[in-house]
């Protein structure tokens, strides 16, 4: 709600550090209200922390995929002869028949086999039932790797025995995911906190503030014990993000200002436009070497007045000038161009700053 009200564009940390900070603070705050184990809090300076996802369904899918990747790499570390697809065909994960449909759906989406296990008279999944299923699957050559425990099932508001399930997961080295999408919020109340006993066994834990905390749908809080487990499988670094490993979005705004910048570049013989300018992105470079371009960008960054990113198209090093501010005007384009020229001058040693001031 706060980041929406601020109107921030938080697609990468560097684009808006406060949006990341806000999320970190919020999730620690909520985690402390739930008395989650320290492992799940950023403030413990450990490996864990929370993240806001869209829905519970999405969070469970994410946990499942990351657990799959972890299982595949640990299996391949033992036996290099196994291909991904050979391992994937053998992977199985478990939940109770009372688990939310999203648990089974995550298997459909990720191509993994889900075994739904029977519950007791209180619709709760017990540790011995899980253990028996694992033993049976192992004897058949399957590879158990992931378990979903439900706290407050959708159908019956049943609670799996997460202490016992957690013990089994620990012993068998399986990723334990707890879906408390609905019931989790109640555990903030001291009289219901006991329902979370066993959460210390979880590798990931989810709760939807949109269920019971007067937060708009969709909003799902997800805590992970080891952030690496979800960062690593999702780690792809395109060249335009090589400096801070974050995300990028398409920009449809301020097209004429981009052309204005393009003209400034074209009118300076030291520079070239690397790609046709269509929308708000102008890819340009100094006509010199990659090293000169890198050096120029370093100078621009050190001055700290404008933010530019480098990238590569095919093997060519380029600098990306992107117009995306709502209030950006012609004079801002000139200001940015001046910053670029100052850096270029420094690199190429042609003019000094005073000469340039006259130019503008
Ligand atoms: C509501 C609920 C879900 C699904 O939540 P979405 O955010 O709609 O995906 C999953 N599990 C449980 C236990 C739920 O109560």
TrEMBL record:
Q: Can you tell me where the transmembrane regions are?
A: none
Cofactor dependence is on:
pyridoxal 5'-phosphate
A Pfam family that this protein carries is: Pyridoxal_deC
Q: What is its EC number?
A: 4.1.1.28
Annotated InterPro entries: Aromatic_deC, PyrdxlP-dep_de-COase, PyrdxlP-dep_Trfase, PyrdxlP-dep_Trfase_major, PyrdxlP-dep_Trfase_small, Pyridoxal-P_BS
Leader sequence segment: none
Q: Which UniProt keywords apply?
A: Catecholamine biosynthesis, Decarboxylase, Lyase, Pyridoxal phosphate
> Is DNA-binding among this UniProt entry's keywords?
no
Please give the family membership noted in the entry. Belongs to the group II decarboxylase family.
Q: How does it assemble?
A: Homodimer.
- Please state what the protein is called: Aromatic-L-amino-acid decarboxylase
Q: Lineage in the entry? A: Eukaryota, Metazoa, Ecdysozoa, Arthropoda, Chelicerata
Q: Which gene encodes it?
A: LOC106471537
């Amino acid at each position: 709600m706060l980041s929406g009200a601020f109107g921030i564009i938080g697609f990468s940390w560097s684009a808006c550090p406060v949006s990341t900070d806000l999320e970190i603070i919020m999730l620690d705050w909520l985690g402390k209200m739930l008395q989650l184990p320290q492992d799940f809090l950023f403030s413990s300076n450990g490996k864990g922390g929370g993240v806001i996802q869209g829905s519970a369904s999405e969070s469970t899918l994410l946990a499942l995929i990351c657990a799959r990747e972890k299982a595949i790499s640990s299996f391949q570390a033992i036996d290099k002869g196994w291909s991904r697809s050979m391992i994937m065909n053998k992977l199985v994960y478990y939940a109770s028949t009372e688990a939310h449909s999203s648990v089974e759906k995550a298997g459909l989406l990720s191509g993994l086999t889900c075994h739904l296990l029977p519950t007791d008279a209180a619709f709760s999944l017990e540790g011995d039932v899980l253990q028996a299923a694992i033993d049976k699957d192992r004897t058949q050559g399957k590879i158990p790797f992931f378990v979903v425990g439900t706290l407050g099932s959708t159908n019956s508001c049943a609670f799996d025995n997460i202490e016992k399930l957690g013990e089994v997961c620990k012993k068998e080295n399986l990723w334990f995911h707890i879906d408390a999408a609905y019931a989790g919020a109640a555990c903030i109340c001291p009289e219901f906190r006991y329902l979370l006993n066993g959460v210390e066994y979880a590798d990931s834990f989810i709760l939807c503030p949109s269920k019971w905390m007067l937060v708009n749908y969709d909003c799902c809080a997800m805590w992970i014990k080891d952030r690496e487990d979800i960062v690593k499988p999702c780690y792809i670094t395109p060249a335009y993000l090589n400096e801070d490993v974050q995300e990028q979005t398409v920009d449809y705004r301020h097209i004429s200002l981009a052309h204005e910048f393009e003209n400034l570049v074209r009118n300076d013989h030291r520079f070239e436009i690397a790609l046709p300018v269509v929308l708000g992105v102008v890819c340009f470079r100094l006509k010199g070497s990659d090293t000169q371009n890198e050096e120029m960008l370093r100078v621009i960054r050190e001055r700290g007045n404008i933010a530019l990113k480098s990238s590569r198209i095919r093997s060519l090093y380029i600098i990306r000038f992107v117009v995306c501010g709502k209030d950006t005007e012609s004079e801002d384009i000139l200001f940015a161009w001046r910053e670029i020229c100052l850096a270029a001058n420094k690199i190429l040693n042609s003019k000094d700053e005073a000469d340039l001031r006259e130019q503008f």
